[in-house]
Amino acid sequence: MAKTIIDAHNVSKTFNPKTIPVHAVQNVHVHIEEGEFVALVGPSGSGKSTLLNMMGGLDEPTEGTVFIDGIQITTLSENKLIDFRLHNIGFVFQAFNLIPVLTAKENVGFVLQLQHMPKNDRKKRVLSLLEDVGLEDKINSKPSELSGGQQQRVAVARALASKPKIILADEPTANLDSKSAANLLDIMAKLNKEEKITFLFSTHDQESD
Amino acid sequence: MLLKLAWLNIWRNKRRTIITATSVFFAVLLAILFRSLTDGIYDNMIHNVVSYSSGYLQIHQKGYWEEQSIDNTFEEDGQLYQDLLNNPNVTQLMPRLQTFALASNTDKTKGVLILGIDPAKEKAVNNLHEKITEGQYIVTTTDHAVVLGEGLASQLKLKVNDTVVLLGQGYHASSAAAKFRVKGLIKLGAIELNNSVVYMPLQQAQYMHGATNRLTSVSVMLDKTTNLERVKQSLKESIDANAYEVMTWKEMMREMDQFIEADSTGHYIIIGILYFVISFGLFGTLLMMIFERQHELGILIAIGMKKHLLAFVLFLESIMITLLGCFTGVIAGFLVIKWFTAYPIHFTGELKEVYEDYGIESIIYFSSHEKIFIVQTLVVLLLSILLAFYPGYKVMTLKPVEAINS
Question: Ramachandran region of residue A6, left (φ > 0), alpha (ψ -120 to 50) or beta?
């Protein structure tokens, strides 16, 4: 039996609870097993990003608990949570999520530097990741020199760099044309199969799956 | 990694960084030039005044300053001179015998200040000979002639080659009386001195007062930039502290010291305002740097960068921009001061006359003391460090979701 990687119970998120409460997420249960490739589908404003943020420890639920790989992240201190994310969760956001002053390889290597990986190991891993996403010829390009699709592929490579247990992708294809979007999803699916990494991504596009 | 990231970040908006660094540059440059100019003027003023009067330091017999009597003189001592000159900061010594007497000519009588001096040594320090307006300067310590202040000569209706009669009290209550030929008239900036001074060769003064080989003081000239208190302490240790007292010009001329202190306070306020204005520019840049990058900062926290590291990057950015302005400002300041040291500004016209009337060289000096450069740089750096706390605080309180969605 596969191991449970995300286990969220009765998760709710209410914005402005004291003034005009907005219930973004209400009593949601999420159970995802290791190696699954899960799409969170829904129209804009349905609370996908909010739920994803709570799964990734970026936002606190108003109610409920979130366990990632058996650890209750809702009780972790801020610093421990940042450390937890660094080693266990990879993020891919909608757009503009690379550091604009760094090249593709520096962006990917940045997470590894935060993990204090030795320089030579880091170099090898960065090159291998950029090869996996088909950007071996763009390693020295800055984000501004890359297309939207290429930037998202660098973001995927960066999310994979720390060998996380899960990758959370919040509408990663939203700003891409259909060809780039399909290409990105193919890469994510391939990595899911080859690296056995759990993917949870949100989309409002029913055809993404 | 953090250094590189900070360095790359400050060049994301080249124009803004250059404008901010330029404002720091001008603040540092102006502050350095301002301090250099005022310190230079003060140094020059002090040098001029002390060379005519007290010297930077003065050695007396212990107790002389409390009771300035000829009975409190001390015997000239070659060993004392040697001990003083052994100090590397001491440039010249001026032995003096200073007393008060009555001067008269026909039916005119006036109280005067007699300064028994070594003409050659005084000439080397304060160019006394250049202030002679009529007649000649006294040449040797045995010359039987005196130089009178112009004002005094006018009040006593004395001219060059006339004879002045001096009557006073000598050593151990003896009577001191003599007549001297007026060899020259001197114009001094200090009006009081101009109306009362009689410059007399040292040996003549000693002989007249029955105080052979005795001195009231030895004025000590120093390098202008020397730390006065440190040298005073060092001299006190090298001479017989039981026999002599060492006093600084600040202790002997408290009014001038207080005037400089008060004037300096005004200058500090001006520099403070300058830095206050610059702080706003720097703070504005720091605010822009954080607010326009909220999304990116949120992403960095999300992918696992600790907030204190992020705050440190912003801190480095602030320091780098400041250092850029500081460094170029110090170099420019140094070059400008070097230029004005080599080619000082000379006053002309009425201003020149006013300065010379007060016995001060009519030249604007710039001080190139390293303290000026160090202090201004440290002040600006300290300011930027203080200002950098705000972006740091903002990062520490940043919520990643809100930042990413901004």
Answer: beta
